Amino acid sequence: MGHMQSGHTSGRPADTGQHNATGGQPARTTPGMAAGALPAPTTPDSSTAMNPLLSLPATPGRRSLPTAAPRIASAAASHPDDGDTPAPRKPTLTAQVRAVRAPDVARQALSELKLLGQELAVLPEQLEVNGLAPSHQRSFIEASRAYLNLAGQAWESIAEERLEQSGADSDHRQRAITVARRVSQLQQECQKASGNPVFRLPRKIPRHWHQRAHLITSGVQAWQERLSATPNPLVMGRALFGLRGAVGLASASGLALTLLTLLTNAMLFLLAALGIGAALAQAAYMSLMPPTAKPPYIPPLTLAGLDPGSAIRLLSTRGLSFLSPVTVLIAAAIAWPLVFFFARKPLGLLLGAAVYAPTRTTRNTIRPASAAVAGALRAWWLFISILGLVAIIVALVLSGIFLNEQGLTQPDTLGSWLGLGGTLLGNGSFLAAAAGVAALLLLAAPVLLITLARAVVELGGGPGWAPSARRYALAPALATLAPVIVALLVAIWFAATNSGWQNTTFFSLSLGSFSIAATLRGLALLLGILLPYLLLIELPYRIGIRRWRRAWLRDLTDRRADVESHVRRLSAADPDSGAQDTSDENLRAMQYDMVLLQFYQSKTHDIQRTPRGPYSPRRTVVALILVVALALLLDQGLPLLAQALATTR
Predict the structure, then answer these.
(1) I want to staple 615 with a disulfide (CB 3.0 to 4.6 A). Which of 17, 27, 362, 619 is the partner?
(2) Residue 29: helix, strand or coil by DSSP?
(3) Nearest 5°: phi and psi at 44?
(4) What angle do CA 481, 482, 484 make, to 5 degrees?
(5) Sign of the alpha-carbon dihedral angle for 626, 628, 631, 636
(6) HSE (CB half, 13 Å, CA atoms) of 439?
(7) Are 59 and 7 contacting, i.e. CB atoms less than 8 angstroms apart?
């Protein structure tokens, strides 16, 4: 449906019931405000010279729907009850001009955001060129945090369809002026430094400067690309989500950034070494062994009867034989891009937003979250990163010791050289890669769960949020729910297999040599996918839409009753003469009321037709078919695939 947009973009009729005292023509006013109510514009001073739009007068307002209040006041003034009622005050010339064309506050607020973002995005290069990066790094980050607060307030106003009112609010104006002043100060410092040829500052780059600058610049530019004359709260909400994470991560301490970078880079190096080692071992085996030979295979259950030291020794010396080089190669090929894309971007952004962002949360809200939760996540971040790096170093040392004790023969052929390289790279990095993966999983687990819980709250957020604004949280919710579902499926599969649920068959279907069976384990896997989605995404979204619909329908019902009451008063006959008022002014007021009633009726119809679910029925059916196929594949195909990989070199 065409959602109700803020300000001039909402498609709502303008309030024309307020009449000019001299011309008798209807004057256009800002919705919910009488003509002439706007204060005179102020003259921008030097602090706001960078952006003349920052001098917008503060005009409070609550709703962006047109109301009948101006017309009721005009009708009461035109038909006084007695002769003592004073005549309405003639509006000033400024008020008349503004009544003809009300200021476009929404477009102005968006233009401010775009202009300030452009100036902020080019500041890192200016500071670096003029040698001010070391001394002004903190000031630049503080300006970015102030801009993030301004962007968050603007998006929340768009989500609640009140940007036309809140854009002129004193709090919004003060935030915009604060950002403009901080950016202007940094620009002036750069101009002073560049204009002083006698004393040139050295272009010294502080630690993590490029990383911080790239995070903020990319986040601001992505946010700017979503700013348009007709604001879309969905795409703006997603861009604001990324901007909050980028600014938060850029605000992180040097120790936290260093530990996260070291852990991520170590994981990428170890997984690459593990994959190369597995490929070399497979090539050596193919060159030395006949095609029909079977590789040595150690069943996983063998480790259950070993003490920890023996198990570690076995994994270090026979890691590739334990899982077969093909299995290790496939696992490394899958894990490397996951670590590269997940740990370098989403995980860091989630940690930055939840720990170091001004609001200490991943939610698109201007209200700060719990400081205790942010402190706990910060301590966990530092502790697990240090522990993971220490575990990687210890694992590398142990692998080297065990390989040295095993003894390595001098290679004399190409195949033996390949085998030696595969053994050193593969078995030497096997334990360290496993320790790094475990550290990343432990680091990501709490922030993913907290982000998922906050996304659920966003989906069922306040009743003032439009459906398009509420939908921004679907992508973060699905992204954080996916690892949770994967972990749940692994636990269900092993628990159901050990319980023998795969032997309980509901029905089977045979197509020649191909057969499909629906077992109790497959049903458990299917529920493990569907229930988290239904409880954490589908249900909260429907609750949020229902709350939004109820609030708007109640508000529209009250407004319709107000307009209908006004129509009855205008159409009532005079008690003395029995004649109705047929003046042009009265007829125009009634005509406007009829148009307004039609608008309210159309808006009520659109709200009632708003889809209740997050996705269309067609997409839901397609997704359900894919989920059922995935459950069958995990139930029937996964054991066969695991057996084939375990016995293939």
Answers:
(1) 619
(2) strand
(3) -65, 140
(4) 65
(5) negative
(6) 28
(7) no
Of 105, 104, 27, 39, residue with least CA distance to 70:
27
Let me know how long the chain is: 649
Q: Scanning the structure block, which residue is given the tokens 């992505």?
A: 222
Tell which residue, 120, 359, 141, 110, has the closest CA to residue 220: 120
Residue 314 pLDDT: 61
Q: How far apart are CA 613 and CA 594, in angstroms?
A: 34
Helix, strand or coil for residue 266? helix
Most confident listed range (90-104, 131-145, 169-183, 194-208):
131-145
Summarised one tens digit per residue, pLDDT across range 161-197 is 888 888 888 888 888 899 999 999 999 999 998 888 7
The whole-angstrom separation of Cα 112 and Cα 50 is 11
HSE, CB side, 13 Å, CA atoms: give it for residue 59.
30
Cα–Cα distance measured from residue 248 to residue 148, given in angstroms and rounded to the nearest whole number: 10
Listed residue (340, 129, 133) closest to 216, CA to CA: 133
- Residues in contact with 351: Cβ distance below 8 Å, sequence separation at least 6, in sequence order: 248, 249, 252, 260, 377, 381, 447
Dist. CA 487–CA 485, nearest whole Å: 5
pLDDT in tens, 386-412: 999 999 999 999 888 888 877 666 777
Read off the tokens for 113.
Answer: 């955001």
What pLDDT shows up at residue 316?
A: 66
The closest alpha carbon to 401, from 313, 277, 271, belongs to 313
Average pLDDT of span 322-328 = 74
The pair of structure tokens assigned to 84 is 């003592």
516: which strand partners? 509
Report which of 169, 172, 175, 152 is spatially closest to residue 223, judged by C-alpha positions: 152
CA distance readout (Å), 637 to 45, 408, 518, 643, 644 = 72, 39, 12, 10, 11
Strand partners, 519: 505
pTM over 0.85: no
